[in-house]
Each structure stands twice: as structure tokens, then as C-alpha cells.
Amino acid sequence: MIRLSKFYLALLALYSYLAAALSIPSGSSPTTQDSSILTLSQPLNFSNLNNPTPPPGLYCPIFWDPEDYEFEPQELWMSLVTFQSDLARYPQNDRVPPNARSSSTPISGAKIIIIPLSQNSFGRIVWALWDIGRQMATRYPMPELVPTLSTRVHFADGLAGYISLKKPPERDSKGAAANTTTAEGTATNATTATARRRRLNAVQPLHVVSGRTTAREDPNLVISYSFLNRPLVPGEILTAFLMANVIVSQHEETQLGASISAYSIDDRVRLILDDVVPGHGPGANQLTWRLARIGLRTLWQNVIMGFKYNPGQFVDGPRWQSVRFDLEYRGVKIGQGWLG
What we know:
This protein is an alpha+beta fold. It has helices at residues 2-22, 73-87, 122-139, 193-200, 234-249, 289-304; strands at 31-33, 36-39, 62-71, 101-104, 111-116, 146-155, 158-166, 179-181, 187-189, 210-214, 221-231, 259-263, 270-275, 307-308, 313-314, 321-329, 332-339. A seven-stranded antiparallel β-sheet has the order 1-2-3-6-7-5-4, with helices on one face. A six-stranded antiparallel β-sheet has the order 10-11-16-17-13-12. Helix 2 runs antiparallel to helix 3 (122-139) and helix 3 (122-139) runs antiparallel to helix 5. The longest helix has 21 residues, at 2-22.
């Protein structure tokens, strides 16, 4: 009996050791390889029941290269959500064309590049960008600089493509940056890290409590907003917006009755957008998924991040606070939401 008890005690000790080892969060054990850092993530076992479940086997091990180049997080975070929103407008099951897709950041002109393989779809790419943003917010929380990166996108059925963040265009021998055209069609210049930081901070934040802003994609869509002065963790806001784009990607753009309830990765922040209830105004049941997508994109760019494409600066942000907002189309309220 004594020998048997010792045997069971040994088994219990081994079980405790393995349980502790397997409970290490993904991405928490970096390994250095040739001056690059690899985020050791495993296929997600997603337990947040409030959000959609990622496709089986989603796995994006990221190689970070801080010696290559480091970005201001404001510009990169804004561009990541914007690019994901752009891809979310396509039907989620449509195959991504085999040619590479890219989007340029609005200040430095750096490129986020996607190289899909044959089995990849738009919905899967949207999920992959969510996973990259999730790891980015954890490893390099605001306001830390974010290095260039590259990753292979895996799902249960195998390798689906590659995603990379390249440094801005090379400068000429006189130190001038090469002109680059962004995804919005605006010419920008890549600059040194010091000059980039100076430009990002050139205008003092206005800290507007409430206001109205117009969507660039559709001037008929106006977002009115009021900050509630409740501070939020930046990474939680980022992952809530990324998840909102995932939800948008699962619906047709012309479909009415858009309703979004997206949680941050840690379930602490919620982004809500609903249409107007019948009997509460002429805009009831008029919120399409296209307008919901554009509205949240505008809220992210213009209000949360405080970016203005003219003059191409962060003039009032980022602002990491809870906010209430309404969507109006041609003067009629069609949606209402809250972040907090």
C-alpha cells in the first residue's frame, strides 16, 4: 500500500508539472533567432463565448525584427484596423486572388503585405489580422514602438498564406524620403524615427469631449460622438475593433439590420452598434452592414485615433476612453452605439 501511494503521489506531481507548463499563455516565451523575435503562439483554444470562434487551427507565429525598423504604434494600429475593415467588405467565403494585396500606412508609407495561397478566403485573412493585432497589443502595448514583422498564416487544413509588415521606402543619399502612395491615394514621405515622432506630436491634442465627423468613404454618413471620460486600456480597444471587423465580414454589405457586439480579447471592453428600433424614428431598420463597417472605421480613425488625412496628422488622439456615438445618414439617425 505504501508503494502504491508513492506511485500515485508521483503521478500527481507529474500531472501538476505538466498542467503548469501547458498553461503558459501563447506568446509569453520569446525566442531570439538572428536578431529576430518569434512569438511562440499555438493554435487558438478560444474560450470567449461572447465573440465568434476563430476558424479551426488558426495559428500565426510572428517573427518580430526590432533591428530592421520600429514604428510609432498610433500609425500602425490605425492602419491595421483600416486594412482589415477594407477586406471585411468582401464575402467571407470568396477566395482571395493569388496576387499579393497591400495597404500603406498614411504617414511613413510602410506596407502591410498579404500573400495568399489557393485555399485562403477573405474571411480567413480578416481573422489572421485579428490574431496579429491580438499578439501585437500584448507584446508591444501602447506606447511601445512596434518592429517590422512577418508570419505564416496556418489553419487546420494547412498553410494559407503569408503576412508581413515592411519598413518604409528607403531614403536617397541626401536623406530625403521616397514618395509613396498610400491606400487612400495620398502621397506621403517616409522619415526618420525622430522626424516621425515629431510629426505625430506636431499638433497638441484638442481633447474634444463631443463632436461630429464625416465618413471619407461616404460623405452622407455622419458620426456624432460624446466621450464619457472613463479610461480604457488601449489594447482592449484595439482588439474590440478588430473583432467588430470579423463580425462585419460574416455578413453581406447590402444586408439590413446590422447589429454588432464585439468584445476585446480579455472580455473587458465591449463595442456595440445597433440599428434604430422601429417606432423610434424614420431611420429604423436602415442600417446596412456596409454603413456599419464604414461607421466603425470612421469612429476608429477620426474619433478614437484622432487622425485627420488633411493635414495627415494625429490632431486629437489617440484617446483611450469610453464613448457613445450615433450614425446618421442624410440627416436621419440609423444607428447608435457604445464603446466601454
